[in-house]
Amino acid sequence: MTARTSQANHYDLRGSLRRIGAMILRYWYLIRSSWPRILELIYWPFVQMLMWGFLQTHLAQTSSYYAQAAGLFLGGVLLWDILVRTQLGFSLSFLEEMWSRNLGHLLMSPLRANELIAALMSVSMLRLAIGFLPVAFFAYAFFDFNIFSLGPAFIAFFANLVFTSWGLALATTGVVLRYGLGAEGFAWFIVFILLPLCCVYYPVSILPEWLQYVSLSLPPTYVFEGLRGILLEGVVKTDLLVKAVLLNAVVFSIGYYVFRRLLRSARVHGSLMQMGE
């Protein structure tokens, strides 16, 4: 009996991985077959990198503070782009299924909800790589700033931002699942609400005292504070990274719970077959 159970679990895992792989391949074909999709992934990060890079260069020429903090804005914009691109990569792949009225068919197939989530996470990383790596190269070529020179700290920053983006994306796609395409705006603007609160380009102390408590409840705030610690003080503040990890565990758990709860509600109310506004 134990051997049969083990064999059944093996086949179940293999089948699950095949379904996830098939979904990733589907999204890869969509991206590869459309040069506007690839251009869109690179265009906005590239424009932002140039804008903030030239501003950083100007300020470095006129201020000793910014001269010693080379890459302060560039590092911020590159890390911010990881958060934005990963969240949008997840959400847009999901929305494309709704726009094509294919989501109901997928969820009636043997594909499970967790497999769909795993596929969307993987595709978000693929889309991020397509957009982020060229821009990181251009940041080095134009402004001599290498984001990867942060070493292990960059890996910690990267992981924390990715998990924050996945938590946000799960919650927003859950809302769209339940309430239809009329709620798709959530997928676009939710991450940008965090921009002034996460203190991407300035320290938390700049905010009003009451707003600092809100800012410090967000995992990305500790990432950007950690970046400033490295660039301004040359110190990796591990206590900030630990706080980011703990908060991310909460954010991701809430996002996953919201997605599963709203998916169940969508099935009960028949929303999956009503993809209109």
Describe this structure in words.
The model has no long low-confidence stretch (mean pLDDT 85). Helix 4 runs antiparallel to helix 10. The longest helix has 32 residues, at 238-269. The protein contains eleven helices and no strands. By secondary structure, it is an all-alpha fold.
Quick summary of this structure?
With 277 residues, the protein is an all-alpha fold. The chain has helices at residues 2-32, 35-62, 64-68, 72-99, 103-108, 113-143, 152-179, 185-193, 209-215, 219-233, 238-269.
Number of strands: 0
Classify the helix fraction into a percent range.
over 70%
Note the gap between the termini: 51 Å
Class from secondary-structure proportions: mainly alpha
User: Order of helices and strands, N to C?
Assistant: HHHHHHHHHHH
What gyration radius follows from the Cα positions, in whole Å?
A: 21 Å
Q: How would you characterize the largest beta sheet?
A: none
| Count of helical regions | 11
How many domains make up the coordinates?
1
Overall body shape: globular
User: Unreliable stretches, pLDDT < 50, 5 or more residues?
Assistant: none
The proportion of residues in beta strands is under 5%
State mean pLDDT (0 to 100 scale): 85
